[in-house]
Design brief:
By secondary structure, the protein is an alpha/beta fold. The chain has seven helices and 16 strands. Strand 1 (4-9), helix 1 (13-24) and strand 2 (29-35) form a beta-alpha-beta unit.
């Protein structure tokens, strides 16, 4: 059985205890830590590397939504997030930070279990990460089979929430795989691929032009994200000097 390591985060003691109780009575969940604020949670998440975080939104100093955004910007694999909140107007914003689910307080164990099962299914589907062979090929899980993809045919990779879309040279069609962009980034050779935006990885060999804030690959223009500009500029400087 797959066991998911969990962290519960809530500044309300009763709400925190309820989530702890629900985790403890769910066979495939393991509570590794509890936090009553998001600042402490950030440190604990870095140390414990949980699979799942049950995260309240309205907290002082640092909100759960702000913590989720910070986690997305960190290197390494981001834990799955299930938001727990008393306010339903955060739902759309929650999905923008790739939250798996959104539990509206007060929620029942049935609702909690439904959200936990959704995370379990995602983790089991992505438990076998793609494999790179000699920096030449990668095996991607596409639907129910593993597809061998030549890295020289990859143009760029786009994040679509829980999926990635691997854009290939024509006439090949793009491939959709249920993995995170971060997980795939860690498997790709850094000499050939670079993260240039929170939602894009570019094949360096396929870049046909560069402007002040963008790159061009095939017919696509991709903006270079603010946090990636310095690293990308270092690469560009080597090309043009």
């Amino acid at each position: 059985m797959t066991i998911l390591k969990c962290i519960a985060v809530d500044d309300e003691p009763l709400a925190l205890r309820l989530v702890e109780t629900f985790i403890e009575q769910t066979p495939f969940l393991q509570l590794t830590s509890s936090c009553d604020n998001a600042v402490e949670a950030m440190s604990v998440i870095r140390e414990k590397q949980p699979d799942l975080v049950f995260l309240d939104i309205n907290m002082p100093n640092l909100t759960g939504m702000e913590l989720a955004r910070l986690l997305q910007e960190q290197p390494g694999t981001t834990p799955k997030i299930v938001f727990t909140t008393a306010y339903n107007h955060y739902a759309i914003e929650g999905y923008r930070v790739n939250a798996v689910d959104y539990l509206l307080k007060p929620f029942s164990y049935e609702e909690f279990l439904r959200a936990a099962n959704k995370v379990l299914e995602l983790c089991e589907e992505t438990s076998h990460l793609p494999t790179v062979i000699d920096d030449e090929f990668i095996f991607l899980k596409v639907e129910y089979q593993w597809i061998r993809v030549s890295l020289k045919d990859v143009l760029y990779i786009e994040s679509l929430k829980d999926y990635v879309k691997v854009h290939l040279e024509a006439p090949q069609k793009a491939l959709l795989s249920l993995i995170s962009l971060k997980a795939l980034e860690e498997k790709l050779p850094s000499s050939k691929f670079m993260r240039i935006h929170r939602s894009y990885i570019a094949s360096l060999d396929k870049i046909s032009a560069i402007s002040k804030n963008s790159i061009f690959i095939d017919k696509a223009e991709i903006t270079v994200g603010e946090q990636y500009k310095e690293t990308f500029k270092a690469i560009v400087d080597k090309w043009i000097k």
